[in-house]
Amino acid sequence: MKRDEILFKSIFESAVEGLIICNNEGEILMANKRAEILFGYQEDELVGQKIEILVPDDLKSIHKVHRKEYAKAPTQRMMGANIDLFGKRKDGSTFPIEISLNHSVVKGQPLVVSFIIDITARKKMEKDLEKNRNRLEKYSIELEERVRERTLELERSNMNLLASQRLFRTIAKNFPNGTINVIDKNFNYIFVEGKELKAKGINSKDLIGKPYVHNNEDSELEQKLNDAFIGQNSTHEVISGTEHYMIYIVPLPSNHNTDIERILIVEKNITKQKNAEENIRSALKKERELNELKSRFVSMASHEFRTPLSTILSSASLLDKYFEVGNLEKKDKHISKIKSSVNNLINLLNDFLSLDKIEEGVITPSFHEFNLKKLIEEIIEELSDSLKPGQDIIFKYSYNEHVILDKQLVKNIFINLISNAIKYSNAEKPIHVSVYKENSLIIFEVSDEGIGIPKDDMEHLFGRFFRAHNATNIEGTGLGLNIVKKYVEMMGGQISCVSEEGFGTTFKIFLNEKVKEELS
């Protein structure tokens, strides 16, 4: 029990989000270091306070109402779906936050778990993005106005047309991040200049007389060009490879009649703005995925931890009894149960922590030479206590003992696959572990004669939190195979699975071993 408390406290205190646990009366029972830093409190200063101490003064009353409503029907959810939320620091200042709520029951007491994230930086990015959008719109309006002014000036300055054309060409040639184009009714270039041409290595003279739109490649753009010849202004966004362009289309009135013979097309490269928008969207998506992952873990942990913790508690109680009567055989049996339950808890925590590190990009492969055969033998020895009565691990090794791979990733892969084989196989059933060479690849193979995987579940096998229909009554997180696949792919390999429900499962991992020259 002490080890479990240490594990829980370690996870609680090392979380990158603020974590606060309250009872239904809003009293703060626990707050991790991150929460104390976010709100400006010293260690344990929040414990015993009402949660409303962290709520802005003008919202305290309504927050109490919402808290009581939540206590009546607690659910896992995000707070403030369409509104901005703010937290109040000890010094009275406020800052924007995002909160996800979960609930649990510990020793009969309902608890509310809050994940709190400071989103000040995100709000600043959103504000900057809005400012850039407004600036681009302003530039567009200013540019259109300048074009109109320039057209009027040309009409008033027939006598100075040649000089005006030279000036216009100079301006257009230096037009930043885009081009200025004029086309005729056949959609052929009669003028084109801009710094974008130089960036692409195109000579403007080579485009004169060539079609602006090729073979109806963009029917929407072609329609807007036609509309321009009847006097309509428009804009159009184009994606060319990895580049994004905003196109402004403006009719050019003729000097001699009302017919429009030419139209002006201004192309502006907006790739940087688009990439900035995409980066912000990706960051927000990543943040939401991490919040969802942690919320699902809290929900899963509250369910999966219950069985091993109950086993530990009952076995510990019985140990006292058997020590008194000197029944060593039953004492050893319950010590084994406690060890098994603790290992289950450790595996659950390791699965989540490994996935968390992968999602945050903390884990990167590090290739070194090591004795693979010895490593697998040590893993088998380490897992021997988990074997069911009559189970045996048959190990065959037909490869060089020393390999160049990521030792820690390989160890985690074998521990996960062999542990699964033990878990999902009945007593008296053998487990086979093999390493051999096939063509130029090194093959890891782990097979069992266990419950197998239903055919309909195979396509989801490596999904996060997925558990096969015939395994829901067996302890597990649904994260193990997802993590194994990610580890294999980090080393440039592939993983396959062949299984038949009721007859067993075989996993194969295919890796290219590094050579010493690649490490130097």
UniProtKB/TrEMBL annotation:
<dbReference type="InterPro" id="IPR000014">
    <property type="entry name" value="PAS"/>
</dbReference>
<protein>
    <recommendedName>
        <fullName>histidine kinase</fullName>
        <ecNumber>2.7.13.3</ecNumber>
    </recommendedName>
</protein>
<dbReference type="InterPro" id="IPR035965">
    <property type="entry name" value="PAS-like_dom_sf"/>
</dbReference>
<dbReference type="InterPro" id="IPR005467">
    <property type="entry name" value="His_kinase_dom"/>
</dbReference>
<feature type="domain" description="Histidine kinase">
    <location>
        <begin position="300"/>
        <end position="515"/>
    </location>
</feature>
<keyword id="KW-0175">Coiled coil</keyword>
<dbReference type="InterPro" id="IPR003661">
    <property type="entry name" value="HisK_dim/P_dom"/>
</dbReference>
<dbReference type="Pfam" id="PF00512">
    <property type="entry name" value="HisKA"/>
</dbReference>
<keyword id="KW-0597">Phosphoprotein</keyword>
<keyword id="KW-0418">Kinase</keyword>
<keyword id="KW-0808">Transferase</keyword>
<keyword id="KW-0472">Membrane</keyword>
<feature type="coiled-coil region">
    <location>
        <begin position="122"/>
        <end position="149"/>
    </location>
</feature>
<dbReference type="InterPro" id="IPR004358">
    <property type="entry name" value="Sig_transdc_His_kin-like_C"/>
</dbReference>
<dbReference type="GO" id="GO:0005886">
    <property type="term" value="C:plasma membrane"/>
</dbReference>
<dbReference type="InterPro" id="IPR036097">
    <property type="entry name" value="HisK_dim/P_sf"/>
</dbReference>
<feature type="domain" description="PAS">
    <location>
        <begin position="4"/>
        <end position="73"/>
    </location>
</feature>
<dbReference type="InterPro" id="IPR036890">
    <property type="entry name" value="HATPase_C_sf"/>
</dbReference>
<dbReference type="InterPro" id="IPR003594">
    <property type="entry name" value="HATPase_dom"/>
</dbReference>
<keyword id="KW-0547">Nucleotide-binding</keyword>
<dbReference type="GO" id="GO:0005524">
    <property type="term" value="F:ATP binding"/>
</dbReference>
<dbReference type="GO" id="GO:0000155">
    <property type="term" value="F:phosphorelay sensor kinase activity"/>
</dbReference>
<dbReference type="InterPro" id="IPR013767">
    <property type="entry name" value="PAS_fold"/>
</dbReference>
<dbReference type="Pfam" id="PF02518">
    <property type="entry name" value="HATPase_c"/>
</dbReference>
<dbReference type="Pfam" id="PF00989">
    <property type="entry name" value="PAS"/>
</dbReference>
<keyword id="KW-1003">Cell membrane</keyword>
<dbReference type="InterPro" id="IPR050736">
    <property type="entry name" value="Sensor_HK_Regulatory"/>
</dbReference>
<keyword id="KW-0067">ATP-binding</keyword>
<dbReference type="GO" id="GO:0006355">
    <property type="term" value="P:regulation of DNA-templated transcription"/>
</dbReference>
<keyword id="KW-0902">Two-component regulatory system</keyword>
